[in-house]
From TrEMBL:
<keyword id="KW-0802">TPR repeat</keyword>
<feature type="repeat" description="TPR">
    <location>
        <begin position="122"/>
        <end position="155"/>
    </location>
</feature>
<protein>
    <submittedName>
        <fullName>Tetratricopeptide repeat protein</fullName>
    </submittedName>
</protein>
<dbReference type="InterPro" id="IPR019734">
    <property type="entry name" value="TPR_rpt"/>
</dbReference>
<dbReference type="InterPro" id="IPR011990">
    <property type="entry name" value="TPR-like_helical_dom_sf"/>
</dbReference>
Length: 249
């Protein structure tokens, strides 16, 4: 496994990056750093491995051990590294969103350096939020998800998760807003775009039912069914909507 670091001007020349993986464009204002294997495919960084280990610990009921151990270690490392740095940092899952964040960075404050890292930092905040949610510490969960989104503002999963937090709090407009954002961002991570879209559609549908906007809600559930035919949750909610309509007449 190796790290590829390259400036935003070099990003457009992926072939050049492939032939000279260790080269850094010193003059570029934006730097992107991704982990790849020997074939140039995305690879898991040591920090990501720590986050994945923490998730297994949470699933095994070792929630505080996961927080106090690998999650705080990963987060602490990144926070210490960038605490006093005059740099705008993004956390990308792959090349697609990395390039987008790099482009966003060129529109930042004049002279401010921009770095696009791999997914580990944002993942660690998300995982710590997940752990807090398992302990019913929902405000702490929300804060962690907001930190994740600050690093990965176009990440559909984090937007969906934050939408669900607001759904649980019955803050319908906030929930709807984040679910809609997730729908728009889903294609930035092609490997799970369909799953993220369906999650977003179901979340929007749920909120729209609560807002008594039944036709719009049904349309969202049917949008999910176009992606995943016979998806049981959407079918069940459409049946629920049909029942509500009958009681209104």
């Amino acid at each position: 496994m190796q790290r590829i670091a390259f400036g935003v001007l070099v990003v457009c020349l992926l072939a050049a990056c492939a032939t000279q993986p260790d080269q850094k464009a010193k003059s570029a204002a934006t730097q992107v750093t991704l982990y790849v294997d020997k074939s140039g495919n995305p690879a898991t960084s040591p920090e990501e491995e720590q986050v994945l280990s923490a998730l297994h610990m949470i699933q095994d009921g070792k929630i505080m051990a996961a927080i106090d151990g690998p999650l705080n270690a990963v987060i602490g490392t990144f926070e210490a590294q960038y605490a006093h740095a005059d740099v705008k940092v993004y956390s990308a899952r792959g090349a697609t969103d990395a390039l987008i964040y790099a482009t966003l960075g060129t529109g930042g404050a004049s002279g401010q350096k921009v770095e696009v890292l791999g997914p580990a930092w944002a993942m660690a905040y998300w995982a710590r939020g997940y752990a807090y949610g398992e302990m019913a510490r929902y405000d702490d969960e929300r804060l962690e998800l907001e930190k994740a989104l600050a690093l990965a503002p176009m990440d559909a999963q984090y937007s969906n998760e934050l939408g669900y937090v607001y759904l649980q709090k019955h803050e319908w407009q906030n929930a709807l807003s984040y679910y809609e954002k997730a729908e728009g961002f889903a294609d930035f991570n092609p490997s799970n775009a369909d799953s993220m879209k369906c999650t977003s559609f179901r979340g929007q549908g749920y909120v729209l039912v609560e807002l008594h906007r039944l036709d719009e809600a049904e349309a969202k559930y049917r949008a999910c069914l176009k992606i995943t035919p016979n998806e049981p949750k959407s079918l069940g909610e459409i049946g629920y909507i049909e029942g509500l309509r009958k009681t209104q007449h």
